[in-house]
Amino acid sequence: MKTITHWLDGRTWAGKADRKGRVFNPATGEQTAEVDFATPEVVDQAVAAATKASAAWRDTSLGARTRIFFAFRDLLDRHKKDIAALITEEHGKVLSDALGSVTRGLEVVEFACGVPQLLKGEFSENVSTDVDSYSIRQPLGVSAGITPFNFPAMVPMWMFPISIACGNTFILKPSEKDPSAALFFAQLLKDAGLPDGVFNVVHGDKVAVDAILTHPGIHSVSFVGSTPVARHIYETGTRAGKRVQALGGAKNHMVVLPDADLDLAADSAVNAAYGSAGERCMAISVLVSVGDVAERLLPKIRERIARLNVAPGADPKADMGPLVTREHRDRVASYVDKGVAEGADLVVDGRSTTVAGHEKGFFLGPCLFDKVTPEMAIYKDEIFGPVLGVVRAGTYDEALDLVNRNPYANGVAIFTNDGGAARRFQNEVQVGMVGINVPIPVPMAYYSFGGWKSSLFGDSHVHGREGIHFYTRGKVVTSRWPAPHHRGVNLGFPQTK
Asked: What's 264's domain CATH number?
């Protein structure tokens, strides 16, 4: 049985773990590896390594940092298919989706390569006579990232490239369900020339997470995951005096107006609801049909679902792979049971889906509900699986109110050919990321990713310029170089002249 262990101070950990987790191939249901779980003492070792490396790394020139990240970018590009294969093996998503997620993370690395421009401050000459004032941004010290199972490559790359490029050292705690991509990054960073201790990886569960949140040597924590855990991360981390950005859950709506291109809307709904088996924080899980849209749109969606090929992620013909674990598959299926019990119309039932030769795999086929109401559990809860619910709204205002009343506010989409309606929607909707005829509006690396309300704890989104600000703190310097003669003692408050 393969053992996956920690990466500390530029090398794999040589200790013995008291507790281990199990890593599965979701397509076969078979265990493929054990992963060591970190104790607080192992987290201490990671912090010690990161702290030791911090002073020299923060003083490393911007040019040298940039060269390392360019080398890392090239290595990532060369090995992106290898990383995608690891993701498919441990997470289950299809290879094309895994490769796409690595590419989106690579874009953040490319953004981090521009750190000399991004860290530029401001300068004002003669704010008072012979006095200049300027601002600079400096690293925090040791940063940590706690990342989810659904994007084991992309989400960590939202965090550590920017943190490290800004002069911090970093400790990554990836999901214990699919931990191998993190170690692949560690080796590539070392090969790119990153000094030992600047990037460290610890594996584990809540024990490791709480050790990170309360450790006095860690200065910031970034998190992506469910809302209950995000709230715990934020409250515990800030109570310990840390800067925290905690991105929580989602219930993303897709509003379809009567004038929309329904073929585009049907394609988009199927892609966004069932891609990666619905295990995306930006997946569309609620389709809000306005007016008579449902009667015209549902047949198109059903037709497309019928053509989907549910198969192991490594199969080149697969459209949708298994869910990440058996427990998660059963949890998602239980929500389908609840939807039926609550009176929603189950139009497509994927609960009996089996894949020949992979009967022990964690497969669940696409599920589609119609006539869902806001009181139902399948509407209220983040299911995180291939379940799409259709809610019928009579008017635009009713649809908007439905979206705005939802406690989650990560992403939303509107499909329409009416520019005025789209412009009004983007202004009035209370959600962090908005797509207009785009179902999954994940921003490019130079914009920031994040939601509102219960989808975000803290005031900082991830990557982009907000990422630069999160991983640095501002300092303003006011300076005067004395002339040969001084102006004497004056106890009054300094005034501009």
From this structure: 3.40.309.10
